[in-house]
Design a protein that fits this description.
The chain is an alpha/beta fold. The chain has 2 domains: 3-14 and 67-185, HAD superfamily/HAD-like (Rossmann fold, 3-Layer(aba) Sandwich), CATH 3.40.50.1000; 15-65, no CATH class. The protein contains 6 helices and 6 strands, in the order βαααβαββαββα. A 6-stranded parallel sheet has the order 3-2-1-4-5-6, sandwiched between helices. The model has no long low-confidence stretch (mean pLDDT 95).
Amino acid sequence: MLKIALDLDGVLANSISVWLKIWNESRNDSLKLEDVKCWDFWKGLGITSNEFHRIFYKTWKNWQSIPPTEPDLLNKVALLKELGEVDIVTSRPKNTKAYVLKWLRKHELSDNNVVFVNIRSKKSELGYDFYIDDSPVNAEEIASAGKYVALYDRPWNRSVKESERIKRVMNLKEAHSFIKTYMLRR
């Protein structure tokens, strides 16, 4: 059975929009999602990794305000489950776990198959056949490990070039089609 790793932040949860709201309110700034052009955009803001993660903790503490990346996640994830076993795989720190689980329940997504990985772990080493992720770092690492990734289109990953193993997708329905095509070629 095909094992699929489905990312949380940026793929299911539009958490960066809330991060930016917190940032903008605290700094009297006006950053928008489209302004986030690279994965480690926070470095350009002149803040430390710790500050970036502190704001992300605040973001998830306000889990009720985090919108989904697209409507009808329940049915789109169910469609993916028709293709194989789907785990929601996230590098969220453990101190956000309760908030993540509440967010998943709010959006009627099962919290039974949630895998929290250490931020220093490589997702490519987790034993999944297929990944749906928005991280350009993860996408290139996964492809280098000989696995496939549906790269969920976000402003911060647009520099990643598509290849046999990396396919840019605009939504979960396109990710489903890519995985289905992959399965037919096997």
